[in-house]
Design a protein that fits this description.
Layout lengths: L11 E4 L6 E9 L3 H7 L1 E3 L4 H5 L9 E6 L5 E10 L10 E8 L1 H13 L3 E2 L4 H8 L5 H12 L3 H11 L2 H25 L15 H16 L2 H9 L1 E6 L6 H9 L17 E7 L2 E7 L9 H16 L2 E7 L6 H9 L5 E6 L9 H11 L2 E2 L8 H12 L15 H22 L4 H19 L7 H6 L7
Parallel strand pairs: 1-7, 8-10, 8-11, 11-12, 12-13
Antiparallel strand pairs: 1-2, 2-6, 3-4, 4-5, 5-6, 9-10
Helix pairs in contact: 5-6, 7-8, 7-16, 8-15, 15-16
Length: about 475
Amino acid sequence: MNEAGPPDHGTIVAISSPPGKGGIGVVRLSGPRAAAIARRLFRPAGGDGADRQEAPDEPGRARFGTFVSAAGETIDHGYLVTLAPPRTFTGEETAELWAHGSPAVLRLLVEEAVAGGARPATPGEFSLRAFLRGRIDATQAEAIRDLIEARTAFQAKVAHDQVMGRISAAVDRIKDRLAEAAARLEASIEFSEEPEAGRFQPEGGLVAEVRAIRQEIERLAGTYERGRRVRDGAKVALVGPPNVGKSSLFNRLLEEERAIVTPVAGTTRDPIEETLDLRGIPVTLVDTAGLHEAADEAGAEAVRRARRALEEADVLIAVLDWSRALREDERALLRTLDPARSLLVLNKADLPCGLGMDRVLYLRRRHAALEVSALQGEGIEDLRGRLAGMVCAGAPASREEAFLTNVRHRDLLQRAAAALARAESAAADGAGEEYLALDLREGLDRLGEITGEVGVEGIYERIFKNFCIGK
């Protein structure tokens, strides 16, 4: 066993369904005694209990019965499913107990399984065992976590594609090409005394091939900034003075009454966050307190938090009141807006214009201001479209192309490209082929580290420690 994580022996058990109450809860066991331990907790329906306990299971078939403690007391009723290796997620013998989704019942089943010889699984240990047995590679393991944490359908589809090996396949194609170039170089070194040693060189020459591979690596690494937005989403903050309708606009964008709205200025104190799906990109929409000179410490803290949200946001929606003239603090806010990351909204457009049309025309020209009515819904679709354009700018429009969503993959690709760049530079300086071979080997190692073929030491800490227990 390598030092990638927890000891790779014994039978592990954990609750594999989400925390909380539900119609069904799942307790999963994996390891050499998974089925035996699960059978001791299970009494199939029908027939004599002593005979039923040892009845053979048909792998993959659910059997209905009663779950019991070691003392024979009934815990719940439900289904037992056993799965035979190697066609299981972990590659080991696996058993699942499907009970009612009561946290108390599921904890009892885990306790009884531990008393029967299993041990509690560590976070990500089921996935780690699948990785160590070659059932999945490192990129697929990371995508499993992303799939569990997906907040939009597009995120889930992208993560599913990666679980199925999309990133692995892209990396493997590059790795195979680099391995071929490295093998040809090493053959050329091995048979350097032969008169036709040059026949081992790639067509067009080694340096040209290495350059082409480096460029392909850099292209894939360059997709990270687009993929990052898909995985991490964006933060959008509604900012502006009190009583301009930020909370009403927040509710209108969400299409639900999430924030409290009253005619009294300063209703919002603590920032309120909700997730909005914009073309598959998860957007954290933040309603903040009005920016103003606070009269008390609570108000001052609310403004500090609003300014912090303003600084942390990827995009700002600055809200002003269409129905009245600008104040000096609002003019100051306008001067701070970065057009690349802000939208200016003139709310309450259902009321008579108090800004003055000269000012409105200036704000349209200078800040591309958009008039809306959060109360009646006018202009909201245009606002959604403008916001989506800013949030999704640069993000992949389709899951069909391979793009990175994980910074670890990006960093390893960059290190592989740097190794090949050194090989190109060394070749230009007349370095011996042995030195070039070392750089190509390093490039291969970095590519192999992406999928976990090499450099597995510490991989538990880097990948699996942040998984939920039970997966």
